[in-house]
Amino acid sequence: MKGASYPRLYYELLFAGSSLMLGMGLSSAFLPILSWELDPTGVLVGLVTSAWFLARIFTELPSGLLSDILGRRRLALFGLTVSFVGTLMCAASRFIHQLILGRALWGLGAAFFFTSNTALIFDMFEPGVRGKALGTLQAIEFLGNLVGTPLGAVSAALFGYYSVFYIASLMTLLSFFVAFLSKGLKQAGSRQRERHQSISIREALNGLRSWALLVACLGIMTRVLVGAGLMSTVFQLYLNQVLSYDIAVIGVIMGVRTAGFCTATFLSGRLTDRLGPKPVIAVGLLVEGLCLYFYTTTNSLTYIMVIGLLEGAGGGAIWVTLSILLSRAVAPRMRGSAVGLYRSFHALGGILGPIVFMFAYESIGRTIPFFAGAALLIANLPLVVSIRKRHMLEDL
After folding, report:
1. pLDDT exceeds 70 at position 198
2. What's the CATH code, domain 8-391?
3. Cα–Cα distance, 396 to 393 (Å, whole number)
4. Nearest Cα to 381, choosing from 275, 271, 286?
5. Checking phi first, is residue 350 left (phi over 0); if not, alpha (psi -120 to 50) or beta?
6. CB-based burial of residue 258 (10 Å sphere; 0-12 exposed, 13-18 middle, 19+ buried)?
7. What letter would DSSP give residue 6?
8. 154-193 b/e with 16+ CB inside 10 Å = b?
């Protein structure tokens, strides 16, 4: 689609994604604490977060290929169904292994939906406005997470942890009905299958040979490794166990981080359309890396919230701009496959991060994960700088 005109399908995807993100965000403030209460074994606590990504490592690339071959709609509806089952299993869990399995199904379903969602945005918009469209979509989706994090913390404090998972089930079910009833999604699915039905798996894999795509994949793996391992697992425990903040305060801190993230995703898409992805990604990596270090220098709630706002903004800039980078690195007919590969690296970071960072937190030192996370993010800067126009199918 040319220009900045947004079709009805765009708003339907936005609403469904926002509802799903709201449900996902509800448990983020207390999940590591609940896991610790069920079983204080550090590896199992890490696995509760890792489980979100575990099943996805085997399905992300196949789902991207299937989205190119069979169509986006089927993948989106299947993903929302699996997520709904996962939320119900989390609500029924009374042992940590049940919680791990529920999280695995929930994350697997979310991956199918957002693979389809991202590929549809790439299909609908031309490069000149793609950053704005994707940035706006992801910013508003993450507003659901922004609302969900403090809401979930307060709900958990008032009604118990498990009530939150039932609310998440309702949000996921709402997303399913919006997607199922969307006429635009039905039409887009039919057109997409006609356009891509001749693609073979071998052809799709051969189309993924790109240095820029590899840099994007390594970048998202590092970002999720740090995000899932440090900021979604260790960080809450650090705030609770080291700085003695309660769940409600932790929810506010996480909400402030998400506000920075949402703001940056909204603005970075527009900046990428003007400046290209390289400078936006580089600044995001630097800002987020420095903020991770600064968390260890203070116990002041005010300073932590300021650092959290900036750290979230750095992460948001990286998040949306890496997606735009990968969309420019492959041919249009291979975008579903590229998204699948990209999200496979995304899942790998999510699997390894919580386990590695929890081990460091328990065995080496409470601040070591923050130093390691900062170093990993900044180490990606040379890779981003190395991208040249010859690596791209569309101009930087």
Report:
1. no
2. 1.20.1250.20
3. 9
4. 286
5. alpha
6. buried
7. -
8. bbbeeeebeebbbbbbebbbbbbebbeebebbeebbeebb
Q: Please, are residues 194 and 319 in contact by the beta-carbon 8 Å criterion?
A: no
pLDDT value of residue 1: 47
pTM of the model: 0.69
Q: Which residues contact 394 (CB under 8 A, 6 or more apart)?
A: 127, 327, 328
- Using an 8 Å Cβ cutoff, are 109 and 83 in contact? yes
> CA 152 from chain center: how many Å?
18
In this structure, what token pair is assigned to residue 250? 């932790």
Contacts 24+ apart (CB under 8 A), 250-254: 250/29, 250/30, 250/153, 251/29, 251/30, 251/149, 251/150, 251/152, 251/153, 251/154, 252/150, 252/153, 252/305, 253/301, 253/304, 253/305, 253/308, 254/28, 254/29, 254/149, 254/150, 254/153, 254/308
First to last CA, the chain: 20
Predicted pLDDT at 300? 94
